[in-house]
Design a protein that fits this description.
heterodimer, A: mainly alpha, Helix Hairpins, 3 helices, B: mainly alpha, two-stranded antiparallel sheet
């Protein structure tokens, strides 16, 4: 009997690739908003890992965890974008390199 | 499990394979374009494509509730918020790459590839190959009572939404209540952060020209044009923002 055709490792590999793309995006881009989008991408890839493991183990706990990650991501986006808007009011720029007030 | 069910499961397994290949390619391509596209609005749209692709993967992984929640929460709310801020600030076009550190781009890509190598070898590789789609060893998959490797078939017997809801309101009810507090705090925080201060220019040591939206005294003619345009936009956005939240 064949069980599920796609092995867990493929989902994990895809999620790892998405995570790394998001990470490189955070490191490479200068725009705060695009960096933020990359962070969302990383959160999503971790969610994919959780859901894949949820099926692997045959329990729904992973999906509940992914649900909580979604809620926290929504809260984080709200506050983060408000901070970006505030920064833009102060600096007239959404460039991460312009936020250097603490630089000696 | 009856032979009929076994057949349908095998058939849906091969369908899952092709869905995974196609949707995985879409997810990877949209993620790459999101990072590579210079226009931030295009990047946001690529992010939508990526969220939809991941929602499809959730559906193939028997997580129907999360697939719908993904579309509603991410593609519906979060990306709209991103686009809203992009349009509000007017910073969509031509976002630059790389920072001030020499060779930052190359280093970032190399480190990313190294991390992918570590993750693929350490996390993904052990679960490749035959019989790794579930955690029951191959030789124990079928006993007298039937197959043991049934994925989420048992957990989803009453439907995925019912299963997830049952867990949330029993085992995870305390974290669930805490998230409601978190959401309230986040909403209040966003409102407080979005409020206009009396004279925010005092909070920064930037020159007056760097804070066009906040100063109404005209130091010179060149700056006054920007001053005239910005307060109106910022004022309108203020109302929209509070209305949204």
């Amino acid at each position: 009997m064949t069980a599920m055709a796609v092995p867990l490792g493929w989902y994990l590999g895809l999620a790892a690739a998405l995570f790394v793309i998001g990470l490189v995006g955070v490191l490479v881009r200068r725009s705060l908003i695009v960096m933020f989008m990359s962070i969302e991408l990383m959160l999503n890839s971790v969610n994919l890992t959780l859901v894949a493991f949820s099926r692997f183990h045959g329990t729904l706990d992973g999906q509940v965890m992914a649900f909580f990650v979604m809620v926290v991501a929504a809260a984080e986006v709200t506050v983060g974008l408000a901070i970006i808007v505030n920064l833009f009011r102060l600096k007239a720029s959404s460039d991460a390199d312009d936020v250097d007030v603490l630089k000696a | 499990m009856t032979p009929l069910l076994a057949q349908t499961e095998a058939a849906s397994g091969s369908a899952e394979f092709w869905v995974f290949i196609v949707i995985g390619a879409v997810a990877l391509g949209s993620a790459l374009s999101m990072v590579l596209l210079r226009n931030a609005v295009h990047a946001a749209l690529m992010l939508v494509v990526n969220f939809f692709a991941i929602a499809v993967l959730y559906a193939t992984l028997d997580a129907q509730f999360l697939a719908v929640a993904q579309i509603i929460v991410y593609a519906g709310a979060i990306v709209v918020l991103f686009l809203f801020v992009l349009m509000l600030l007017g910073v969509a076009g031509d976002q630059a790459f790389t920072g001030r550190i020499a060779g930052q781009k190359t280093t970032a890509v190399l480190l990313g590839l190294a991390l992918f190598g570590v993750l693929a070898a350490g996390v993904a590789a052990p679960f490749l190959g035959e019989g790794t789609a579930c955690n029951v060893p191959v030789e124990q998959r079928v006993d007298a009572e039937g197959p043991l490797c049934e994925g989420l078939a048992v957990a989803n017997a009453d439907g995925n939404v019912r299963g997830v809801g049952f867990l949330i309101f029993t085992d995870y009810v305390w974290p669930f209540e805490v998230t409601s507090v978190l959401l309230v705090v986040a909403a209040i925080g966003a409102i407080v952060l979005g409020k206009r201060r009396e004279d925010p220019g005092e909070l920064t040591d930037a020159p007056a020209s760097a804070v066009p939206a906040l100063r109404d005294d005209d130091d010179d003619e060149a700056a006054s044009d920007e001053d005239a345009a910005e307060p109106a936009a910022a004022g309108a956005s203020e109302d929209d923002e509070e209305g949204t939240r």
